[in-house]
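User: Assemble these into one structure.

Assistant: Restating your components, then the assembled model:
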Amino acid sequence: MSTAIEYFQFVLAPQMLIGLVLGVAVILVALGLTIIFGLLDVINMSHGEFYALGAFIALALGSIGLPFWLLVILVPLVMLPIGYVVERGLIQRVFHSSERHVTTLLLTFGLGLVMEDAFRLVFGPNPHKPETPIPGAIDVFGVFLPLYRLFLIVGGAVIVALVAVVVYRTRLGAMVRAAAFDRHMAASLGVPVQHVYAGAFAFGVALAGLAGVLLAPIYSVFPTMGRDFILMAFTVVIVGGMGSIAGVVVAGLLLTQVQAISSLYISPVWSDPIVFGIMVIMLMVRPQGLFGRLGHG
Amino acid sequence: MLTVSNLHTYYGTSHIIQGIDLEVEKGAVIGVFGRNGVGKSTLLKTLAGWIKPAQGEIVFDNERLNGRTADHVARKGIGFVPEDRRIFPGLTVEENLTLGFLQVPRRSSAGNTAALRRIYERFPRLAERRNQHGTTLSGGEQQMLAMARVMIGEPRLLLIDEPSEGLAPMIVADLFAIIGEMKESGCTILLVEQNVHEALKACDRFIVIERGRIVLSGNAAVEDDRNKLMAAITF
């Protein structure tokens, strides 16, 4: 019995804690992605680059002396109009075409490539490591956990809760859910659907930017940083249910725990194939994911 | 109030509305009849801004509405209750209703609250079930909710598509009572309905559509016109 407790305390729990930090990071990136997908039915292939853009804006503003905690508020506010203009200027132009899914996918893919090259040109190819805003560490289950990662777990939970409150408990959220389910009917009740779409895209992009600011002190800032998380974020969105906030949280925590715990028993190189294998199985068995789509009850 | 001139609408390559001219005066209730697939619903969807007309003009209260978005049309005072009710799943009865506030963006918060209270007084079943998801209501209650969320915006022109479809006779009677009340309040109504006998009681005039064109129009109070209508819509 005591061996089992020791195994949990010194082997399993530390690994689960590492998985939890990664899970929160993935959830933060996937949250905006799922809102955009759930509402607009647009697979935003440039979401990883918007995540990187948030980190680079924070890096640039931080270099002129703005404090980190101000950037946590400022960067999402800067990202909002960027997202709004991208949706109205680019996505809306192809949104009503019959090949909408392909064109928006290719459009955002191209946008992501342009952004990644622009980051390389402006900031160079090398990683930048912002200072950790909260130094120090504590001992949790015998594992050394930096305080900033602990903050990230708590802060991530607060962000998810706030987003869920906005989407499920406000009239603005009701407009978003109504437009996600039936844009014609929502419009006939006076919902300004095109602005709701652009606003939701901007909100998703702002969340990606916020994730960029918060994760930069842990994972560094570099032009291809968006790629690291985006595959996992897409997997989480597909497994959780395309557009479901609860789905992102459950799938984000579940898949990162699978990754973390499986790496105890098999070579870590197999953790990604296992996670992506779960996504493939989910698409075959339950294509709507664990929870349905945003606005679909 | 509403003038439709030479209206043409397509679904892809299918030419559905093939040149409709229609004049609707304020406060009138117009029945729109015809067999399935002749373009009745498409006419209402075009007027509501769901489908862009390929040709022609829609003028409502001196404003040209062609190509305007459905939310703009709604804010101009045109309410639409579509055929399949289209209650939003995941939204409570009250959320479904309060979305309708957006039809009148200039109305004060107190005005909205009063409008909601009036709706609950008129539809006590909806008041009882205000926190229940709209899609969990019975078919009749869902139809009432579909009507109520448009009525909350106090539209001046109401487009109603097949409201009695699939409903029990008692509910249908309730429904036509509501349409009658809307008419008495001065609302202009365009009503697409298969239950012609019941609809004619509420209508002032009617039109019959065939292959996207108006082939007959008449006065609902004139027996000769009613006989021509029945001959036109029955084999």
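Chain A has one domain: 17-126+133-285.
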